[in-house]
Amino acid sequence: MQRRLAFFIIFAALTIGSAAAQSPAMPDTVLEPIEAPILLSPDAYNNTIYAYPEQNLNLGFSVPDWKRIWINAGVLTGCYVAALTVLEMLPEDATTWNRAALQRVPLGTRWVNHVIKEGPEWDHDNPMFNFVLHPYSGAAYFMAARSNGLSFWGSLLFSAGVSTICWEFGIEAFMERPSWQDIFITPLVGAVMGEGFFRAKRYLVANNYCLWGSPIIGNIVAFLVDPVNEVVGLIGGNPARKYARARHLQLQSHPGPITLNGQTAYGLTLTATF
């Protein structure tokens, strides 16, 4: 619901004077309001893909913010290294890795053995990991690019690069052979899931991060469907949130005649819509 607050600034110098205000006769000429430019508009924040709702079904539409995309790639890489460090510190029964056997082989040799000599394998991880959590991870990688303006196809490539190259054939390959499920399921199913997340995020942005009338539910869902951008946005700012706020707050000025306490004068009406 839009609420309009009108603030009146009366310029006494533009009136005929106090004598004219007391006179029963009003001037014959009525000054019509002049439409002034919008002072604050969502167009000022059109550097986000969410500012183009008409392109919602265009999978090829792209307005990439490369700076934020590279920041997200760096954040994900740092998280991978941190995750590997944590996994290395966990008890052996917490992972499927035979740490004793691994530690007998130099790090570089492990990678060559797992990737070059032995190659990918069909793993036997819990289906919850392979078919639920891994696709969700792929969707999060996908959204890290999609929310920053890449097309569906570009975001799919970004997700595949992060999950397959950086993780399966990168960090994790030092510890085990790449997994066929993770190579294909994570980016492909993740992209389909991620595009659904993108449509949900677009709805949230259009409604100022409210869902079912609740900003709390809306923000929780926003963090679930786009965790990378929402977390990074807490530090570096979030263009989608700036656009959502601007979309629901507009200021307009209207010069023209106004009446206050039965007296007419020429002034300025400032309208805030939010």
The number of domains: 2
Order of helices and strands: EHEHHHHHHHHHEE
Q: Return the average pLDDT rounded to an integer.
A: 77
Distinct helical segment count: 10
Give the DSSP E fraction (strand runs of 2 or more residues).
5-15%
Which structural class do the helices and strands define? alpha+beta
* Total strands: 4
Main sheet makeup: 4 strands, antiparallel
Strand order of the largest sheet: 1-4-3-2
Unreliable stretches (pLDDT < 50, length at least 5) are 1-44
From the alpha carbons, calculate the radius of gyration and give it in angstroms: 29 Å
**How helical, in percent, are the residues?**
40-55%
Alpha-carbon distance between the termini? 8 Å
Large-scale geometry: elongated
Can you walk through the features of this model?
- There is one protein chain.
- With about 270 residues, the protein is an alpha+beta fold.
- The chain has two domains: about 5-45 and about 250-274, no CATH class; about 65-245, no CATH class.
- Helix content is about 50%, strand content about 10%.
- It has ten helices and four strands.
- It has a four-stranded antiparallel β-sheet, with no helix packed on it.
- β3 (about 250-260) and β4 (about 265-274) form a beta hairpin.
- The longest helix has 27 residues, at about 180-205.
- The protein is elongated and about 90 Å long.
- The relative contact order is 0.18.
- The model is unreliable at about 1-45 (pLDDT under 50).
